[in-house]
């Protein structure tokens, strides 16, 4: 029988069993475990233990662009437009200093469409009312100017701001329905102006049992896009639907069905 010194611990006793439960100071057990390392995705490190993969960044495809001053704003602030806002008992309206029939549409109509990218008052009001007056009193002068309107329309859509999109869609409906042959003249330019509409066509808000007041005010982007596409198909001639369908595959014809 081997006698242990009185100061030695009991190897088979309670003290030895308790010592096994204590974590070693050289290895991080329990709450002292090492934190997960953050590693990039699609790398060898992502397959290692005790790692956390960095999630991919958001694409930002729906993020609106920051507002920029347009040529329309600069020209208006310099007083180059023959219009002023007139306040009457029936509300605000544009007062033209020159008869609209005598205006150079090749100069003024593209300038007004350049202002579609403006989303603040008074520029948005002047643009919408100005285009309405030009279409109403000079519809026969719009068709030759259509090629000059494509880039301003494309720039307005590129802002991705809902208020600007709604504003531009309403003005497109004005020129298509208010002037003859404009709908057919826009068909070759669908590849430039329709990609953004394809992006926002299904962006309806789901409010559940709630009421979306933007629908009744004509401010719902998805509904306005659908209405605009139907107008383009009706006024665009026989080739309108196939070109719309090519750019927006989810669109269904309102004429053929």
Low-confidence stretches: 206-217
**Biggest sheet layout:** 2 strands, parallel
Which structural class should the secondary elements be placed in?
mainly alpha
Please give the share of residues in helix: 40-55%
What is the average per-residue confidence, as pLDDT, rounded to a whole number?
A: 80
- Our measurement of the CA-to-CA distance between the termini, rounded to an integer number of angstroms, reads 103 Å
Listing every helix as H and every strand as E from the N terminus to the C terminus, the arrangement reads HEEHEEHHHHHHHHHH
Number of strands: 4
Q: Using the alpha-carbon principal axes, give the shape.
A: globular
Number of helices: 12
Cα-atom radius of gyration: 33 Å
Walk across the major sheet and give the strand order: 1-2
What amount of the residues lies in strands? 5-15%
Entry summary:
This protein has 257 residues and is mainly alpha-helical. Helix content is 43%, strand content 7%. The protein has helices at residues 14-21, 71-77, 105-114, 123-137, 146-158, 162-178, 182-185, 190-193, 195-200, 213-216, 221-235, 240-247; strands at 37-39, 51-53, 83-88, 91-96.
Please supply descriptive tags for the structure shown above.
4 strands, globular, mainly alpha, 12 helices
How would you portray this structure in words?
It is built from twelve helices and four strands. With 257 residues, it is mainly alpha-helical. Strands 1-2 form a two-stranded parallel sheet. It has a two-stranded antiparallel ribbon with strand order 3-4. Helix 3 packs antiparallel against helix 4 and helix 4 runs parallel beside helix 6. It is globular and about 80 Å long.
